[in-house]
Design goal:
The protein is α/β, with parallel strands linked by helices. It has one domain (5-52, 101-387): Arginase, Chain A, CATH 3.40.800. The protein contains 11 helices and 8 strands. It has helices spanning 27-38, 55-58, 64-75, 97-117, 146-156, 173-178, 228-246, 272-289, 309-320, 333-343, 371-383, and strands at residues 5-8, 45-48, 122-125, 162-166, 185-192, 217-222, 250-254, 295-298. It has an 8-stranded parallel β-sheet, sandwiched between helices. Helix 1 (27-38) packs across helix 9 (309-320), helix 4 (97-117) crosses helix 5 and helix 7 runs parallel beside helix 11 (371-383). The two termini are 38 Å apart. InterPro entries: AcuC, HDACs, His_deacetylse_dom, His_deacetylse_dom_sf, Ureohydrolase_dom_sf. GO terms for molecular function: histone deacetylase activity. Pathway: Ketone degradation; acetoin degradation. Belongs to the histone deacetylase family. Residues 22-317 form the Histone deacetylase domain.
Length: 391
């Protein structure tokens, strides 16, 4: 197995573009790759491009009639069929939509295949993480569910245990739905409470299908305003114990940057420094509990497209490459010039929000009046006994 990580990148993924006034601005992808290059991380990884996912791959998760509808909307956006979630405010149709979405999906599937072959232990596709797409519809800015497709391909290749950990501010509903009845896939999502935020799912009582799949879905629904300490406390109170028990052969993680306090579409108050800490924790957990340390890290949401997303995902690439970027490092001027050229914004100056990362371990006991602790108690009580673990 190669000691170098893979970074999946094709400039054409920036064609995934819902329009000038849509929150998911593809400039966030271009700026992330620019910052990766500014720090020289492109020399610490193998930058590779996989082909777009074909229909046979897309059908591992999506219905053929839906794929056909996406393809039709790509050539005639005005005729997009809203019954498939296309041409809506969240998912407006655009020319080339099928090709761009299939290309992003192809990067995640290609990365998964490379990990299973042993070409590398870690791989990153920060253009991916489009976790809301359903088998027969687009949803939440997501056309094809690359995370679910990568997992489905791994199952097709014979992988028996895959863990999916999603720390986007929104519930990873599409991935959960795809594997609801499959005990080979453990899905864990930490997100803002569904009472307050799209997609309205991800309650702790959602624990997977009947029979052997019961207990294979885990949902930590956090209160609005949760900051670094609570977010990290919840992650460490749930994820490591589940991975230690499940012992996955591959770990897939989704690192939506929209938990950040500057994100305009949600209500958590997490810093870049805490996001980096969870990325590092996922890396450590892969080495500790995952067979072959196989780790596929994906992007996801994130709508503070200059100040937050590029910094967060550049940290992710650095961690996967075993060459982490120092938080206090001054961001290269070459990248800030790129930011100004593309956005007319000045951009951040350092790779940190200046926060000290700390949290109280679950083993120290919980406060029944604390809303984060209530969320942790709810999910541990709902899922852990189903998996033979102490609540």
């Amino acid at each position: 197995m190669s000691g170098r990580a893979l970074l999946m990148w094709d400039d054409a993924v920036t064609a995934y573009n819902f329009g000038d006034h849509h929150p998911m601005d593809p400039v966030r992808l271009a700026l992330t790759m620019g910052l990766v290059r500014a720090y020289g991380l492109d020399t610490a990884v193998d930058v590779v491009a996989a082909p777009a996912a074909g229909d046979s791959t897309l059908r591992l998760v999506h219905r053929q009639d839906y794929v056909d509808a996406v393809r039709a909307a790509s050539t005639s956006p005005r005729d997009a069929d809203a019954a498939y979630g296309l041409g809506t405010e969240d998912d407006p149709a655009f020319r080339g939509m099928h090709e761009a979405a299939a290309l992003i999906a192809g990067q995640s599937v290609g990365a998964a295949e490379a990990l299973w072959r042993g070409d590398a232990a870690h791989a990153v596709n920060f253009a991916g993480g489009l976790h809301h797409a359903m088998p027969g519809s687009a949803a939440g800015f997501c056309v094809y569910n690359d995370a679910a497709l990568a997992i489905a391909r791994l199952l097709e290749l014979g992988v028996e245990r895959i863990a999916y950990v999603d720390v986007d501010v929104h519930h990873g509903d599409g991935v959960q739905a795809a594997f609801w009845d499959d005990p080979r896939v453990l899905t864990v999502s930490l997100h803002e409470h569904p009472r307050l935020l799209f997609p309205g799912t991800g309650w702790p009582e959602e624990t997977g299908g009947a029979g052997a799949a019961e207990g294979s879905a885990v949902n930590v629904a956090l209160p609005a305003g949760t900051g670094d300490e609570g977010w990290l406390r919840a992650f460490h109170a749930v994820v490591p114990e589940l991975l230690a028990d499940f012992r996955p052969q591959v770990l897939v993680t989704q690192h939506g940057a929209d938990t950040h306090f500057e994100d305009p579409l949600a209500h958590l108050a997490v810093s870049l420094d805490a996001q980096r800490a969870v990325q590092a924790a996922c890396h450590e957990l892969a080495h500790e509990y995952v067979e072959g340390a196989r780790w596929l890290a994906l992007g996801g949401g994130g709508y503070a497209v200059v100040d937050v997303v590029p910094r967060s995902w550049t940290h992710l690439v650095g961690i996967a490459a075993h060459r982490p970027v120092e938080p206090e490092s001054v961001i290269p001027q070459s990248w800030k010039d790129q930011v100004y050229a593309l956005t007319r914004e000045l951009g951040p100056g350092r790779m940190t929000d200046g926060r000290t990362v700390a949290w109280r371990g679950w083993e120290e006991g919980y406060d029944p009046a604390d809303r984060v602790d209530q969320a942790v108690v709810a999910v541990r009580g709902a899922v852990f006994p189903l998996r033979g673990l102490l609540a």
